[in-house]
């Protein structure tokens, strides 16, 4: 089968096509024929070496397609059958066939297409783990006042349509995000910060957080957050969390429960999906997708059409 991955870490030039045998599912594993694969920042972290993994490696973290083989044990417990539409949160999804532990596979409800599942799964579950934490990420849906930060007017319009209460364009050199947050909160700061930008915004987070607030740092779009001393938290009694989807939604029970909640929000039209672009299943396609996601010009999900 064809797959897209790396045999060494580095810039976009290290992406390569791999020719691999179709995997045979072992005990508790499901084999799916991939139709769509989601593109995520984590793919770029794995390619660059920020997240070190054994090499060679097939990239991609989420796929949606149809079940084509079931291993023994848990995979053959009768809950899945050949031909079922499923999605999986698992490494190696830029491939024609993907093998995943049963615990990482969810059966799609009636009416949910594989394209939509690949669009929604990873970001949807990430949003959920945020909203399940005390400060809530799917925040506007839950009634919180949300201050969003964006770099373009177009992103501001989209964020507003998605429910943000206030928006700050941090590309405008005349605007201080921290001052603007202070003004909007009458000097109190915000109860929670969800920061996927990382290095560039980390220090300002401590200016904007309220006393006893929570900073959730969940990404490295601008680079990894540097090491810091716990004493940094004392000035405002701040809590810092660094959640990651891979071991937050970990067991089969967690995967099925959170995916069911996500699919229900989609079915009730409480979440809408936005695809930025479909990319070809080729080295060029994945390279363009990685360039685009890191280039700050995308608004919505990037997906690879595998079949
Ligand atoms: N912890 C987890 O399990 C988990 C799961 C999923 C995603 N994530 C993380 O969440 C973050 C956002 O992911 P996403 O899927 O929501 O991607 P996204 O929609 O592309 O959001 C990333 C945004 O970061 C902003 N940004 C600011 N400085 C940047 C820089 N120097 N380089 C690139 N982007 C920069 C960009 O917005 P502006 O151009 O408007 O500034 C960009 O649109 C990523 O860091 C990702 O790794 C973490």
From TrEMBL:
Residues 10-304 form the Enoyl reductase (ER) domain. SMART domains: PKS_ER. One of its GO terms (molecular function) is quinone reductase (NADPH) activity. Coiled coil: none annotated. GO terms for cellular component: cytosol. It holds the Pfam family ADH_N. Gene3D superfamilies: Medium-chain alcohol dehydrogenases, catalytic domain, NAD(P)-binding Rossmann-like Domain. This is GroES-like protein. It comes from Tilletiopsis washingtonensis.
